[in-house]
Amino acid sequence: MADLKIRNLKKGFDGTAIIKGIDLDVRDREFVVFVGPSGCGKSTLLRLIAGLEEVTSGTIELDGKDITDMAPAKRDLAMVFQTYALYPHMTVGKNLSFALDLAGVAKSEVKEKVQNAARILELEPLLERKPKQLSGGQRQRVAIGRAIVRNPKIFLFDEPLSNLDAALRVQTRLELARLHQELQATMIYVTHDQVEAMTLADKVVVLNGGRVEQVGSPMELYHQPANLFVAGFLGTPKMGFLRGQAGKADGAACEVKLECGAQLSLPLAAGGLAAGSPVTLGVRPEHFNIVPAGQGQLRVIADVSERLGSDTYCHVRTASKEMLTIRVRGDFAPRAGETLELAFDPAHCHLFDADGQAIAKRLQQAA
Amino acid sequence: MLTLKQSRRLQSVLVGTSSWAIAALIFFPILWMILTSFKTEIDAFATPPQFFFMPTLENYLLINERSDYFSFAWNSLLISSVATLLCMLIAVPAAYSMAFFESRHTKRTLLWMLSTKMLPPVGVLMPIYLICQSLGLLDSRIALIVIYTLINLPIVVWMIYTYFKDIPVDILEAARLDGATTLQEIGRVLLPIARGGLASTMLLSLILCWNEAFWSLNLTSSAAAPLTALVASYSSPEGLFWAKLSAVSTLACAPILIFGWISQKQLVRGLSFGAVK
Amino acid sequence: MTTSTLDTHLKSAPAAAGGKRRSLKPGWFLVSPSVALLLLWMIIPLGMTIYFSLIRYNLLYPGENQFVGLENFEYFLTDAGFMPGALNTLALVGSVLLISVVFGVLIAALLEACEFWGRGIVRVLLISPFFIMPTVSALVWKNLIFHPVSGILAAIWKFFGAQPVDWLAQHPLLSIIFIVSWQWLPFAILILMTAMQSLDQDQKEAARLDGAGPIAIFWHLTLPHLARPIAVVVMIETIFLLSVFAEIFTTTSGGPGFESTNLAYLIYNHALLQFDVGMASAGGLIAVVIANLAAIVLIRMIGKNLTNQ
């Protein structure tokens, strides 16, 4: 079992608040990813859970037991550090067995557990080496192995892939997903990389400025971002934003007049929205279509295009100088300066009020 | 015109020659001391100075007759090593907590510690002398061990602190999560990783203790007297004793000199006090 | 000590906010033994010294320990040896620092200029004086190098037909500066050499491609890179140079007159040769004040270099 409950957790350094009151539940066997821009407090939150930082106020409970002030060693958690933090003076085998040796586990059992972890991670031929003699990917696996050997209640990962090169990162990401299934373990994973967050997580926690912006499954977050920050943070290329004003709104539809000239009606329950209040419309790049002149809602000027082969990302500018990115087929590439006509389905639009909060729940789930 | 290769070689020869010349110049007094120690007193005082002579061991034999070299050397060794160990024992925990649990007072404490080293020992000679006298510690090894521990403590703390600063704190945190107590964290992870730096710190402390000449001359007379005192006892010659003086000096310096030569690589690497990144 | 500027550079200073929480960290109690010992080491003798400095206390006249106020200080400050002693101390510290930094940089740069045969041995030879005890080096210089009859320098002077110089009698302070520099130059060379090895080679090559000659590289790249190691050299050497004693004790005994007396030796002279504990204590306190002034100036100047990493 591993049920983690965090209640009103706060942390400050020298009077500067880093974590400004976080409530969070992590359930048994869940893969939870903390994601956010640098400085959002995600690593600090992980370190608070690990016990490496002192909590300023609030509580952390693990399986109903208050561990807020407990020494890190007694929490039964294991952590994989960004720098791997291998013991440089010990062999790989010693690195793996160190925790068990400290705990006074019987030699035969230690050996078995180390062998087991080494087998899972394909470290068997490396057990006698020192960390210095390993490649980045191998060190990474040793760091994970060190956690596996302890069979902890929760695995904590602090940006474990950020020191690997791109190819290895993709491969290790897959291995981590496989490992999560194989071990049936509870994992908390910190990253600034939204691809890692989307691909690995059962539950994503988006953090910003020491607060939780939104918690949910990757698809929930992608399709129903709670606010402008989440909408803009998840998804590559970024969601496009258009400024506008609310028109007539009721429980089933909402009129929006955009600054760039277009006017449309969205199928949103926006009863509380006053006519004339400023709003932001968000549309993801894949939801734009280029249509013949006169058939779309929006006229834009093409800027730079990035051709990836399978797709082309066109960066375009609206009449009101907003930059949008649209994703189109790979064989299409508009010239810079060319005028394009865009169409988009109001059902795939997101609407945010003046505070950046998403307006109402969307009536239908996007495809 | 010289080719690039030729000019490189020329540069190497020029730099090599001048470096050797400087090294020879700086080393000369030591060489001359060692040479003189193998001369007869007459050769030692000859003008012009003699570079070639019949070497003799008579000075060394005579010294051993007149004073018990090994008793002095034993005192030096004992006092230096015990003081060094004691100093490390007190300094390591302090440096550990300063390096890894920095507080707003850490830098100030460190600088304050260093500033205590700037107090001239003469300033406190009388009180220390009187304290030792009243405790019956005059001419005792204990007094010198305590004093050496204290006078080297600031430098030792500082050196260890700079080494510890270089060790990623992640590794210690990993140990903490692995269930290590503070003592295990220090003993099984931190110290083995920092052993190079610790070794050079101990080396420096040993050298400083071995060569310390103010307290040893003023607080000891015979029983606890280290080699510095032995040398001093030959310093006011009632006649011309250059050769014997050289022999006793060579004897006093030889252990630490040889030790220093063997470990100089380690020492040089360590002496940077965090100045080299 | 004024170090407030240093504090702003602290990387992280976890404050124990919310006092009731039990700290997870071993903090100050690990530092306290060192701090406590050093405090004792400072306060007890210093307190006694202050007390002695205010009474008449001469070991030759026991029992006459009445309170005399600042009389001892007055005597010490007006002592014929005080001004020369203070000036000599400054001259000694200043010139040895200058010699070891300037020659240290030059020699280190020479050794690091390129690979040559026997560099390892050269390094061993250069470091050797650092291992020699001050009493021995003073004796060797006095009797084997400086001696007007049998010294090496006398022989060289005679070889060129000049009148040998009695160095320690005619130029006592200069001679002592020479001896002390000989002891401390190796230390500077070694630290600066290690520092130069860590100079980024890419930077040097980029500069060379930009057309910089060896002198320009030395001036614009190497020297700035050496700021911190030089600070370390100055700091460490000052600590030891302020209390140079054995070198003077074994060579000139401060003479002739007060020509080679520094404060350390002057106080020693009062304490152990004239048995005037009161006056020696007053002198000791004055030396402490001077040392602390030097320390403050020094830490102001280079403290930043020392503690910022």
From TrEMBL, chain A:
GO terms for molecular function: ABC-type maltose transporter activity; ATP binding; ATP hydrolysis activity. Residues 4-234 form the ABC transporter domain. This is ABC transporter ATP-binding protein. PROSITE patterns: ABC_TRANSPORTER_1, ABC_TRANSPORTER_2. Signal peptide: none annotated. One of its GO terms (cellular component) is ATP-binding cassette (ABC) transporter complex, substrate-binding subunit-containing. Keywords: ATP-binding, Nucleotide-binding, Sugar transport, Transport. It comes from Pseudomonas taeanensis MS-3.
UniProtKB/TrEMBL annotation, chain B:
The keyword Cell cycle does not apply. It is found in: Cell membrane. It is a multi-pass membrane protein. Keywords: Cell membrane, Membrane, Transmembrane, Transmembrane helix, Transport. GO terms for biological process: transmembrane transport. It comes from the Bacteria. CDD domains: TM_PBP2 (cd06261). The chain crosses the membrane at residues 12-35, 72-98, 110-130, 142-164, 214-234, 241-262. Pfam families: BPD_transp_1. Residues 73-263 form the ABC transmembrane type-1 domain. GO terms for cellular component: plasma membrane. InterPro entries: BP-dep_ABC_trans_perm, MetI-like, MetI-like_sf. Belongs to the binding-protein-dependent transport system permease family. MalFG subfamily. PANTHER family: INNER MEMBRANE ABC TRANSPORTER PERMEASE PROTEIN YCJP, MALTOSE TRANSPORT SYSTEM PERMEASE-RELATED. This is Mannitol ABC transporter permease. It comes from Pseudomonas taeanensis MS-3. The lineage of its organism: Bacteria, Pseudomonadati, Pseudomonadota, Gammaproteobacteria, Pseudomonadales.
From TrEMBL, chain C:
The keyword RNA-binding does not apply. One of its GO terms (cellular component) is plasma membrane. One of its GO terms (biological process) is transmembrane transport. It comes from the Bacteria. Keywords: Cell membrane, Membrane, Transmembrane, Transmembrane helix, Transport. It is found in: Cell membrane. It holds the Pfam family BPD_transp_1. The chain crosses the membrane at residues 28-52, 90-111, 123-141, 173-195, 230-251, 271-299. Residues 86-298 form the ABC transmembrane type-1 domain. It is a multi-pass membrane protein. Belongs to the binding-protein-dependent transport system permease family. PANTHER family: ABC TRANSPORTER PERMEASE PROTEIN. This is Sugar ABC transporter permease.
